[in-house]
Prior knowledge:
Pfam families: MR_MLE_C, MR_MLE_N. It comes from Cellulomonas chitinilytica. This is Starvation-sensing protein RspA. One of its GO terms (molecular function) is mannonate dehydratase activity. The protein is of the alpha/beta class. The protein has a domain at about 160-415: Alpha-Beta Barrel (TIM Barrel). Helices cover about 35% and strands about 15% of the residues. The protein contains 13 helices and 18 strands. An eight-stranded parallel β-barrel has the order 4-5-7-8-9-10-11-12, surrounded by four helices. The protein has a three-stranded antiparallel β-sheet with strand order 1-2-3. Helix 2 (about 105-115) runs antiparallel to helix 3 and helix 7 (about 265-275) packs parallel to helix 8 (about 295-300). The radius of gyration is 22 Å and the shape is globular. The site of D-gluconic acid has 10 residues, from loops.
Amino acid sequence: MTPLPDDVTTPTAETPGTPDAGGTPGTAGTRAAPAGTRAARPGSAIRSAEVLVSSPDRNFVTLRLTTEDGVVGLGDATLNGRELSVVSYLTDHVVPLLLGRDAHRIEDTWQFLYRSAYWRRGPVTMAAIAAVDVALWDIKAKVAGLPLYQLLGGASRTGIMAYGHASGRDLPELFDSIRHHQEQGFRSIRVQTSVPGIDAVYGVAAQPSSSGRYDYEPAQRAPLPAEEDWDTRAYLRHIPRVFEAVRNEFGPELPLLHDGHHRMTPIQAARLGKDLEQYDLFWLEDCTPAENQDALRLVRQHTTTPLAIGEVFNTVWDYQTLVREQLIDYVRSAVTHTGGITALRRILDFAAQYQIKSGIHGPTDISPVGMAAALHLDLAIHNFGIQEYMQHGPRTNEVFLQTFTFEDGYLHPGDAPGLGVGYDDEAAEKYPYQPAYLPFNRLKDGTVHDW
Length: 451
Ligand code: GCO
Ligand code: MG
C-alpha cells in the first residue's frame, strides 16, 4: 500500500484546491484548481498523468495518475485495434486538464471531461474518461486504505461467478475444450465453433491450445486487417446441432453461453433464439448489430432465450430503450469502454429496476486494470449476473501485477487497498506497441458484413 503522509488534515475553507496547499509548491505543469473548489486533503492534487503503451501479449493503453503526495492510480484505456486514438485523446486533450486537479473529485472530473468536450460519447472519448475515472477510484481507495469494492458499498457476495471461452473446430475439439475449462474450475462456459463452409469464425482459435490457456485473440499484429468470410444461413443451420450435441454430452445443468457477434438480422436472431430455447442457454449475446435498439423488440417477441448485449456501447443512452422496455436480460458493457466505474454503476442501477443483471465484458483486450475495476463492481452491486473471464497470457501478467484470485469458478479482486493492480515499467519496456487490427468479414459475393 502507498504510505500516507503523517499530516493528513481535514480540509478547511482556507485550504485551496491547489498543489500549494500542503503539496509540493510550483511543480511544473500544474494548474490552479477551479474557483470555489477545496482539496479533499493536502497533497491530493494530480502531479503527473502518464499514458503508458505496452504490447506484452497484445496492445494495452494504461493511464497512470500520481498525486502530489505520491499516491498512484491506474486506469485502462485500451480500445482494441484503435489504441493510438485514445493515446492521443488522453495525451493531447485530457492530461493538460488533469494536472493540478484534486484527485478526490471523481464525480466533478467525470462531468467536466464529459460535458466540457461538447462532443460527447463514442468509444474513444468514453475509454479516455473511463481511464481517468478508474485511476481516481484507485487513488481514493488507496488513500482510504481499503479495497475499492468497500467504497462501492462493500461485498454483496463472497465470489464472482465467471464464464470461460470454450471453442473447437469440430465437436471433439470443442468437448475437449469444455472439459479443460471445467478442470480449470469454470462452472459456466461459452461455446463457439467453426461452421462448415466458413474458413475463419469469430471465437475459434486456428490452432488448439497447447498451453492449456484459451488462445483465441481476434486482433492480429499486422499492418492491415485480416479478411474473414461469413454465411449466416450456414451458421443458423449449424449452431442448434452443436448445442444439442453439447447438452447430450454434458447434461442439462452446465450453464452455456453463446456469442452471435452482431451478425444476424432481427428475424434471423429471433429464429436462432427459438431454435436454442430447448438447450436452455444462460444467454445469447449480441445477436444483432447493437446500434439498432428496436431490433431487440422483434427478437424478444419470438423467444424466451435470455439476451445479452452492450460490449460496444459507451453510455447509458445506448441502453435507454433496451432497459426501459425490458428487451434484454444482461448488460455487457466494459468498465473500460463505458466511462468507468462511475458511469457503469449508474447503468447497472438503472438496469436493476427492471431485473436486468450484469455480464461485464472481460476479453483479453480489457487489461488487468480494466478487469480489476470490473471485479470490484461485480462484488459490490446487487444485480450481478456473471463475469466474462478470458485469462491473460504470461507476458501480460508480468507487466500487470495482480492480486485477484480465481478459485473453484469464482473470481475475487483481493483485499489490497485500491484496485489491487501494479504496473511494472521495466517489464513493459520489453514489449513496445505493435500495430494490430481486428479482422473484418466479407460475404461470398464480396459484400462487407458485420464482424
Ligand atoms: C466477447 C467479445 C470479444 C470482442 C473483442 C473485440 O464477447 O468477449 O465479443 O471477443 O470480439 O473484445 O475487441
Ligand atoms: Mg461478445
